[in-house]
């Protein structure tokens, strides 16, 4: 993708992070940290909130981070007066365990169509090593007209 902005609108980080208040996003400590011209970036702690029983980040927590970033990004690409985006399919390959610190996810738009979008989300540890890669398909749903 080019560095040309893909966003329909440009909300600030405070507005985007407010979307995660009092839901799974805030419970897991996920925070959106950067809005680039064609990507969205956020972090999640590697701690008791995100661990599985063996002291590693839970694969499901990785998926929540990936779907959060892709979903927020998808809805920033469309005109909210005409439609909204919802998750349709998500998959993740967990490549490296993380026991401490935080992970950073970067969501990039792969395809923007009339009825769907595809996002790629790479999650890395604090040393910049790829720990998980995810692909998210979003349905673009038109608002019902009366």
UniProtKB/TrEMBL annotation:
Protein name: Esterase
Superkingdom of source: Bacteria
Gene3D superfamilies with a match to the protein in the record: Hotdog Thioesterase (3.10.129.10)
SUPFAM superfamilies reported in the protein's UniProt record: Thioesterase/thiol ester dehydrase-isomerase
Keyword Kinase among record annotations: no
The keyword S-adenosyl-L-methionine is annotated on this UniProt entry: no
Family per similarity comment: Belongs to the thioesterase PaaI family.
Keywords: Hydrolase
Organism the protein comes from: Limnobacter litoralis
InterPro entries: HotDog_dom_sf (IPR029069), PAAI_dom (IPR003736), Thioestr_dom (IPR006683)
Domain Thioesterase: start-end pairs: 54-132
């Amino acid at each position: 993708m080019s560095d040309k902005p893909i966003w329909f609108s440009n909300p600030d980080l405070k507005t985007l992070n407010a979307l995660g208040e009092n839901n799974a996003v805030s419970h897991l400590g996920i925070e959106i940290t950067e809005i680039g011209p064609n990507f969205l970036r956020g972090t999640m702690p590697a701690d008791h909130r995100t661990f599985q029983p063996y002291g590693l980040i839970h694969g499901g927590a990785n998926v929540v981070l990936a779907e959060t970033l892709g979903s927020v990004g998808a809805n920033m690409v469309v005109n909210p007066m005409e439609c909204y985006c919802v998750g349709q399919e998500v998959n993740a390959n967990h490549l490296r365990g993380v026991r401490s610190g935080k992970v950073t996810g970067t969501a990039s738009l792969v395809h923007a169509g009339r009825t769907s979008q595809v996002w790629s989300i790479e999650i890395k540890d604090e040393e910049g090593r790829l720990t998980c890669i995810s692909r998210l398909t979003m349905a673009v749903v038109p608002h019902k007209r009366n």
